[in-house]
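Teaching note: in complex prediction, the entire set of molecules is handled at once rather than each chain in isolation. The prompt given to students was simply: 'Predict the structure of this complex.' The entities are:
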Amino acid sequence: MKEDMILLRDIERYLEGEMSEQEKTAFDELRRTNPLINRQVEEHQLFLQHLGNYGQRQHLQAKLEKIHQQLDMPTLRKQAQDDNQAAKRLSIRRRTITNLAAAACIALVTSLSTIAVIQNVARNKSTAQYEDVRRVLNNIQRSQNALINDMNSKSKAPLNPGTYGGTGFAVSGNGYIVTNYHVVAGADSVYVQNNKGEAFKAVSVFEDISSDLAVLKIADSTFKSQPLPYALKPQSVKLGEEVFTMGFPRDEIVYGKGYISAKTGFNGDTTAYQVSIPVNPGNSGAPLLDSKGDVVGIVTGKQTTSDGIAFAVKSAHLKHLLDEMPKDKQIRKDLNHKSHLDGMNRVDQIKKLEDFVYMVKVYN
Amino acid sequence: MKQNQDITRDRELLLGLAKGEDKSLEIIYSENFPVVLRMILQHNGSEDDAKDVFQEAIIVLYEKVQKNDFTLSSRLKTFLYSVCRHLWLKKVQRTYGLYTLSPELEEVIPATEELEEHYAKDQEFRIMEGAMSSIGQPCQTILEDYYLHKKSMQEIAEKFGYTNAENAKNQKYKCLMRLKKLFFDQYNTSI
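The expected output is the structure of the full assembly:
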């Protein structure tokens, strides 16, 4: 104990430089020879350093404490609380806005996609139920070269039966024919052929997509005009009225009989009738006539989901369409006269009519 | 430009702090404490927590400038703020476990490695503090007066009523030996 204290005193004197030169040399020697003492010296040095650090820090802490005492705490406190409240408000508001925006986006996306899906489904259903009754005459695709050769080699109509077929009927003596727009849509060339087998080249002069009607003009020198035996009935016909049609679902003209079963067409279309009449592909554009032989409509399509339901554009709409055509006054005059077929029996009516109903052949 | 000026000013303040100028310390303290107070209050701390954390951050800063190799790369405010955040994070973790941490505090604060050194020093300080408080009076005061306040043995002898400086010196060595023993017992087991 006593020795330790003496050693400690020596170490301290040594470190503080209080030793005389002689003592110092002796102590250095002692340090060198005695590692235990050397360690003690180093330890003491380390200790003094820690002690110094401790003091420094204590001193600093005291100073900090003093400075802290001088701070105006109540003011700082109030300020901090105000700031925090403002920040909290702001962050809550920001969060609310973010949430609202997200909700709005989701709502928007949901409603839009719902609308899209519903519309898509509705359209699919409609197209599934409705079918145009144009006839696909030949599904085999012919090469365009063959077609061109065919057309060049003959001045008359080509012998091949065309790609699509429908029916058309004359609306004037001088070669205007009405058919369905969907029959001639996208056509490169159109030929019409009557029941006698005479074919004429025709061009589409007017098309109305909304009512699915097209007006063709025969552009062939061999065509001879003749007066029309029937008239266009501008008023709408009554429910249950007996009607008949003539068309070309095959290469021969075909007669069909039925009655007006509803005053509106597919999906409540007011420009058309629903007709209970047998129609087949190829009947598109066929005239619908009443018992007096007046044209009351044009057959356009049928419902696929149930049998015997066909649709026909009302004649009033056709009249309206013809009135709108600026070029030709002939059409109107011809159809305004009284029907010559009134009072005839059906067989005679058909005999008179068949010259004015054409098979429409479309090449594309 | 403004930021550069701020950093220049901050560096001057740090230079003052390194020299131990009270004025610099005071400016640094009063300018930065409100921000830290706000942050601690915001994270459910008390004013005392803010004080403790902030003062510890100042100590960290002081230790750094004492070493001379410290260059301030961000603004002083930023440095202190991030150190405080980090210290508070540690404190919350220690006190409540991981569960009550607010998500904003969980972001890792870049001051981690800066603080490693501090934690070691802090521990040394705690050990010394513990040793000092357990040697009892008058040893504690004698040692503090001699080693920290650099008073001469003569003054100490007079203060404590020793007949001469030599007696006081003997007493001091006894105290010093006890302190050293207490300190190294702790120091060697924990480090």
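Point out the following to students. Chain B has a mean pLDDT of 77. The radius of gyration of chain B is 21 Å.
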